[in-house]
Structures are given as C-alpha cells and as structure tokens.
Amino acid sequence: MSALSADAIAGDLRRLGVVPGGVLMVHASLSALGPVEGGAETVVDALLAAIGPEGTLVMPAFLEVAVCVEGIVESAPHALIEKARETFPTDPANARSEMGAIPEALRTRPGTQRSAHPTTSVIATGPRAAEVLEPHPVAWATGVASPFARMTEMDAQMLLLGVGFNRLSLLHHAEGLVPNGRRKTRIVPQGEGALMAPDVGDDLGVHFPAIGAALLASGTGRTGQVGAADCALVPARATVAFAAGYLSAALSSG
Asked: Which of 216, 154, 160 shows the shortest CA–CA distance to 28?
C-alpha cells in the first residue's frame, strides 16, 4: 500500500461526511490508517483541510495519571493522596498528551489551545476553540459545564478514526446526565492536601460499544473508511440523547 497523502485523507473525510466550517472532535489511531506520508502531522493537516478555515478541530489531551475511588467521597486515605501526588505532572498545562500521536501533533502545533482541566483536558484550534474549551471545571470533567456540554449544544461532529465507541469521551457526558449513572471521585493534589473531584465512572468497554452499535443501527451517523481505518462519524446532540436513554435503561436493569 502506498503512503497516504494529506489530500487523500481529506478526500476520504469529506466523503465520510465531515462538514466544512463545523466543530469536529476526533478520537484517532495513527496506525489504523496505514502508512501516512509525514505521519501524525499529515493527519492533522488533512483534518484541518477537511473542516476548512472556518472549522474548529478538537481532540482529547487526557493524562492517564488520575487516582480515583469508586463513588462520591469527601476524603480519601492518605496513601491514595500521596500516590496521586507522585503521579501528577508538575505542569499539566504543558504535559504531553497520552491519547496518541495525532492528538500530540495537534497539541504542539502553534495556535492550539488547551483547556484548564488538570487531567481531562481538551485541545482545540480554530475560530470557536476558546468557546469550546473554557470553562472546564475540575469537578464533573465531562459534565454540564464542560467542553463536552458545549460541543453537544453546538451539535459538533464526533469522528472515531480507526477506534471504537469505547473511546468516545462524549458518552461520559451522556452518562453524567443519567441519575443512576456510575460515579467516581478523582483525587487531585492541591497544595498540602487534595481536591476530591466527583465525576462519572469508567465504562471499561461494557456499555459504550453497544451504544455505538445501536446508535448506528438506528440510522444516526455514518460509517466508512479513511485510508485503511474503519471510521464512524456521529452528531453530538443525537448521540448524547440516544446514549442517555440507553444508559438509563441499562443501568436500571443492572
């Protein structure tokens, strides 16, 4: 297979349904695309070309350093607080993204902005970047005051490029809207102590893949290939509404 160019990737993205001028959040795997001329930087170039100069490109820049406890708690054992302190980056605003080569290529690109969340930050570039990113409260990182809520209001497009629905962070926002959703507390070092930040629980691939399959089967979203990568493109607003209903029923039944 010959290496993919930015033009070839952008063409596949447009055929999939990526809309110029919109807000596009991307979860991606570079290896899934097959050989790419210039690697991750070329993929970012292609994504920006597909949405055009009026579009805004968004990606996760999460740091997999959080120490969490199940449920909502106001305090944590000293040992867990110390563990959180040991793993927490000294400068989260400039820490390397742990979401793969493509988000890291976007993070280091001039003009990219990053939300202020210490572990669940989001990066964006484009005319609506600041509107998407801030505020980003430490508590309920994907909740009703987060970038994920604002992307839902904007009806952003969500692109899964070579990854499954278990990677779609917007589904955490949907679960936060469900009263019986799973909950956890993130331990965030702060001064001599720690902040207990409530948040939704981790899915671990239990419900999110099923939600994705059911969503696509309902006729919402599109699937196709970008290079060698199997992809899905879904609208944020309909995805959140569908997922919240699905999770409400699934979690009520155990």
From this structure: 160
